[in-house]
Structure to design on (260 residues):
């Protein structure tokens, strides 16, 4: 989507604000003993109470055999993305890490965001993985400015992991958003600067670096949605919806009290 009017801009910003609030509340509910099914139910309740609609539930991605059956994608430890909480209702344990990924629709505007959260006290490597992935998202956001290219975002995402020992998942990436869950362009999490479509003011993009503690290789499970690391290592995932503007790009899905 490219925002053309003040009304569209206001709609995207309000949709993002609402999603940031819901994701913040669901993140706060993460603790040992809570099931991913409970977290999914909480997200759905909060979205509906706000007068909005879950963006993922009932959505059929290109190439999928069936519609997605849950409000959220919740991925634990070696699950990379798109874990289905309603079909694998695991209970979180001390030391786990969990990715919460979902979107909502507000007045016809789609937004999408994700965060990886430690469950209680976790090991140092997992904390470093989470921090490196969060920092990569901030680097990607900084690269998303008018006149840049999609490849500049991809390169910034990948370069942020240099020297960390972690592996960026090149198979997956970000995308356009705004009037649908997924829009063009696809934004790979690795690439070459100066390549790809030009970034223009008004673009609405969902940027989402994903990284593994081990090797980058992933595989998709029999449910047709859940990706896991091939080597069993842990994975982290962060995502924000942004509105590209002249001057400073606006991150519309910032969570309350989120640090930069």
């Amino acid at each position: 989507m490219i925002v053309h009017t003040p009304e569209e801009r206001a709609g995207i910003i309000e949709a993002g604000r609402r999603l940031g609030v819901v994701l913040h509340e669901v993140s706060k509910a993460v603790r040992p003993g809570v099931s991913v099914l409970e977290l999914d139910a909480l997200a759905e309740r909060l979205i509906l109470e706000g007068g909005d609609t879950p963006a993922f539930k009932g959505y059929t991605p290109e190439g999928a055999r069936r519609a997605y059956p849950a409000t959220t994608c919740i991925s634990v430890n070696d699950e990379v993305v798109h874990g289905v909480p309603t079909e694998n209702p695991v209970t979180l344990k001390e030391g786990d890490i969990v990715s919460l990924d979902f979107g909502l629709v507000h007045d016809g505007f789609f937004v999408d965001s994700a965060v990886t959260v430690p469950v209680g006290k976790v090991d140092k490597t997992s904390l470093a993985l989470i921090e490196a992935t969060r920092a990569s998202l901030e680097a990607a956001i900084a690269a998303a400015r008018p006149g840049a290219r999609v490849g500049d975002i991809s390169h910034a995402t990948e370069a942020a992991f240099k020297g960390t020992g972690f592996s960026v998942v090149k198979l997956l990436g970000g995308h356009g958003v705004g009037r649908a869950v997924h829009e063009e362009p696809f934004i790979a999490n690795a690439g070459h600067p100066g390549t790809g479509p030009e970034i223009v003011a008004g673009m609405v993009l969902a940027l989402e670096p994903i990284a593994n503690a081990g090797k980058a290789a992933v595989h998709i499970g029999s449910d047709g949605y859940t990706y896991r690391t091939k080597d069993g290592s842990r994975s982290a995932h962060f995502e924000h919806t942004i509105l590209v503007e002249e001057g400073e790009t606006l991150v519309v899905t910032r969570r309350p009290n989120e640090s930069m």
The CA atoms of residues 75 and 169 lie 15 Å apart. The mean pLDDT is 97. The domain at 6-251 is CATH 3.90.230.10 (Creatine Amidinohydrolase). The chain has one domain: 6-251.
